[in-house]
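User: Show me a protein chain along with its predicted structure.
Assistant: Here is one chain, sequence first, then structure tokens.
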Amino acid sequence: MPRRGELVRFLGEELRANLDPLGRLVTIEAGKILSEGRGEVQEMIDICTYATGLARTIGGVTVSSERPHHRMMEQWHPLGVTGIISAFNFPVAVWSWNAALALVCGNSVVWKPSEKTPLTALATQALFLRAAHNFAGRYPDDLPPEILPNLSTLLLGGHTAGQALVDSPLVPLVSATGSTRMGRLVGPRLAARFARPLLELGGNNAGIVCPSANLDLTLRAVAFSAMGTAGQRCTTLRRLLVHASIYDQLLPKLRRVYTTVTVGDPRNPETLVGPLIDAGAFASMQQALTEARTEGANITGGERIHPSGSPEAFYVRPALVELPEQTGLVRQETFAPILYVLRYEHLAEAVRLHNDVPQGLSSSIFTQDLAEAELFLSATGSDCGIANVNLGPSGAEIGGAFGGEKETGGGRESGSDAWKSYMRRSTNTINYGATLPLAQGVTFDVN
């Protein structure tokens, strides 16, 4: 394992040396603004650093045995080939979350990137091959040079390529990031052959703004979480529950931000919101806004804009949608920069609305009241895999396990003990005595 960690360290060094060009390629292909493109590559570097250290700490526990002269322990072994299916919105970071851990756990990876972002995948694979070549030069006796490049294989294509990966009996684990619809297709196919799923699916993330909230901090957190990546993160803030007593203080500020935020070419350092990924994303957004209007919504923004030189791109102004109640539309995830805003009177009501959606990825509360914060983090509070206080639901660090509950899929990637998904556990018992006592007091004596 420690030597696998060295390989991942070499990968991190290649990524660090190419942070700016790869980050710019993410901007060009996925439409992220420059700081987000660069930040995605930094996240890859961070997970490589984390995994390098993890390679020296993976281990099981020693368990007390009820039998004299016996010792019980756990070992963790490589699981095998790890399949990775990633989405367009984090075209390379999600691969690194999985690949860095899978590699230090002793596995190889097969990566099927989104067909919408193949260039960043090709560039990342090239950097891995360079790292593998440099590793082989430094440690020629560890693995044959012809084996190292095959530790990561790139599988380009559409639905059929992903299906082949999911159905392959040679792949015991598939980590799939995408929509809940995709998860409903992938999950049963993996279950049919008893393969292990790691699903990271939809999120309909909410924030609760309490009367004691720092409104300046809340405004900045809401703006980034709701509008960053043009609303195309799985952790994007999609619902905002604002206490009635401060609604009229916060909403005018939010409306101003939504009407003035800079939308345009993501290569421009002044831009904060880049384009939607394609025409389908734009159509879904407009369909949701049309339905919201029929429900009596007050909508700020949402219209398509046309920066010079980009007539075929789908730039939109983020939409702030104020509604009187949480309707069926609000309970659905629309992968676009739409923020639904609702009033509430009591925290219990806000928590109920917060949890009353099929998804359970990320969540946040804005408060200076310790009791409110602790309640939100408790078992009777947020039902999401990620729950934050005084920051938005978006922008997780790699040190914690990333994932959610309910229709988000239940998978965990990145930090904490997420590495266990990529390994198989073996419980071992060693008898170092001369007799054979049986557990639970069972006797079975033969002559």
